[in-house]
């Protein structure tokens, strides 16, 4: 059966060059980077080279990169590490309601521990945050703001530079974090230009391995260690490093930096070809910013659509039978039958949210693949509408 992968926002295939390097560090360069002998020194050298590669991808210093087990851990650490290190200054946190659950669930936990959380309103349909809404929410006791750079479900690109500048003008001591898991390695990202204090990035979204990510921590402000017990990561995250994963992440970051424009152009072409095919159908609508109008405001490979009178889960199952992989939203929650919290936060109706599907295109997709997906999409819609002609 033909197989077409259109779920690159969930994860990407590990690049062959990256996989070969990982194998080398699993089998040959297997030393513990904390050891002082030659095996350990070679492993340490590889880790520090990877740290520089990740730093280069986002315009940071190597000393500002702390490796983690992935984006979720980095998001959790960004929130908890900031608020407890700065609790004497206040107890107020500002988020958007369309953050990844790694942020939202941690914020709920912090609320139970006595912190206050404000969720910003989103512009209907686009999901964008305005500077005015952000500034209005800031208080003297606000210590942390976390706003996702590129949304993982609808692909909205926030104006992080403008939002961060507005926040710092309103309260210079506030810490600004952005979850850039869907941004770094996909669109140009430079932490110094953005002005952020913390940034989350991940390896498996950019053709690197799963189970490794990083937190950028701007030099010079108070931040609490994640765990103790060995002194690794400059005593901020103790525990023997995932050397093969870190090496793979570094290699993937270097490849992404070199191929950034070409990758984006290819993903955009595949995405636009898909949208041209499915949006011509009755009852199929685009969720989020229209890339035909404002391409710079949407992830180049993201297409989130809803099909009237059809459950998104039913569509996914039909497409999967045809060998097509897509998603009903975030990969971390796609097993849930609950409608997308992102689309609901953007003002979409419950039926639109439940009928949504996310297609995310990448390097391996071809025009023939996209044409096949369009054809099977149409067949699935026709089949399912016969089963539910009166709606959800």
Walk me through this protein's architecture.
The chain has 13 helices and 12 strands. With 392 residues, the protein is of the alpha/beta class. The protein folds into 2 domains: 4-12 and 260-387, Aspartate Aminotransferase, domain 1 (Alpha-Beta Complex), CATH 3.90.1150.10; 16-254, Type I PLP-dependent aspartate aminotransferase-like (Major domain) (Aspartate Aminotransferase, domain 2, 3-Layer(aba) Sandwich), CATH 3.40.640. Strand 6, helix 7 (191-194) and strand 7 form a beta-alpha-beta unit. The model has no long low-confidence stretch (mean pLDDT 94).
As a percent range, the share of helical residues equals 40-55%
Order of helices and strands: EHHEHEHEHEHEHEEHHEEHEHHEH
* Rounded Rg: 21 Å
- Report mean pLDDT, rounded to a whole number: 94
What is the highest CATH level, the class of the largest domain?
Answer: Alpha Beta
Largest sheet: 7 strands, mixed
Spatial ordering of strands, largest sheet: 2-8-7-6-5-3-4
Going by CATH, the homologous superfamily of the largest domain would be: Type I PLP-dependent aspartate aminotransferase-like (Major domain)
In angstroms, what separates the terminal alpha carbons?
A: 31 Å
Q: Which of globular, elongated, flat, extended, rod-shaped describes the shape? A: globular
Question: What is this structure's SSE topology?
Answer:
Layout lengths: L3 E2 L10 H12 L10 H21 L6 E4 L2 H15 L6 E4 L5 H12 L3 E4 L11 H7 L4 E5 L13 H11 L4 E5 L11 H4 L3 E5 L10 E5 L14 H4 L7 H36 L5 E3 L15 E6 L4 H10 L2 E2 L15 H5 L4 H5 L1 E5 L6 H21 L5
């Amino acid at each position: 059966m033909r197989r077409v992968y259109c779920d690159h926002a969930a994860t990407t295939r590990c690049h062959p060059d990256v996989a070969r390097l990982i194998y080398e560090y699993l089998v040959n360069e297997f030393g513990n980077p904390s050891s002082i002998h030659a095996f350990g020194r070679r492993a340490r050298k590889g880790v520090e080279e990877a740290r520089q590669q990740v730093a280069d991808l986002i315009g940071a210093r190597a000393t500002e990169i702390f490796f983690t087990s992935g984006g979720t851990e980095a998001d959790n650490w960004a929130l908890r590490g900031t608020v407890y290190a700065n609790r004497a200054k206040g107890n107020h946190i500002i988020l958007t309601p369309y953050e990844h659950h790694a942020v939202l669930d941690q914020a709920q936990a912090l609320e139970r521990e006595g912190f206050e959380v404000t969720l910003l309103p989103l512009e209907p349909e686009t999901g964008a945050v305005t500077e005015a809404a952000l500034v209005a929410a800031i208080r003297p006791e606000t210590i942390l703001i976390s706003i996702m750079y590129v949304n993982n479900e609808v692909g909205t690109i926030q104006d992080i530079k403008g939002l961060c500048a507005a926040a710092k003008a309103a309260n210079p001591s506030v810490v600004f974090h952005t979850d850039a898991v869907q941004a770094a390695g996909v669109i140009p990202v430079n932490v110094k230009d953005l002005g952020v204090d913390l940034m989350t990035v991940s390896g498996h979204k950019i053709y690197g391995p799963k189970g490794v990510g990083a937190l950028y921590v701007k030099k010079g402000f108070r931040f609490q260690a994640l765990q103790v017990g060995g002194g690794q990561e400059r005593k901020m995250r103790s525990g023997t490093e995932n050397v093969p994963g870190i090496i793979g992440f570094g290699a993937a970051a270097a490849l992404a930096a070199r191929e950034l424009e070409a990758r984006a152009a290819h993903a955009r072409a595949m995405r636009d070809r898909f949208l041209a095919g499915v949006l011509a159908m009755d009852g199929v609508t685009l969720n989020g910013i229209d890339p035909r109008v404002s391409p710079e405001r949407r992830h180049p490979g993201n297409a989130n659509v809803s099909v009237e009178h059809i459950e998104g889960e039913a569509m996914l199952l039909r497409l999967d039978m045809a060998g097509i992989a897509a998603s009903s939203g975030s990969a971390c929650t796609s097993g849930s039958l609950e409608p997308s919290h992102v689309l609901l936060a953007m003002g979409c109706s419950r039926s639109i949210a439940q009928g949504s599907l996310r297609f995310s295109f990448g390097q391996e997709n071809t025009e023939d693949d996209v044409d096949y997906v369009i054809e099977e999409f149409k067949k699935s819609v026709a089949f399912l509408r016969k089963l539910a002609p009166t709606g959800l």
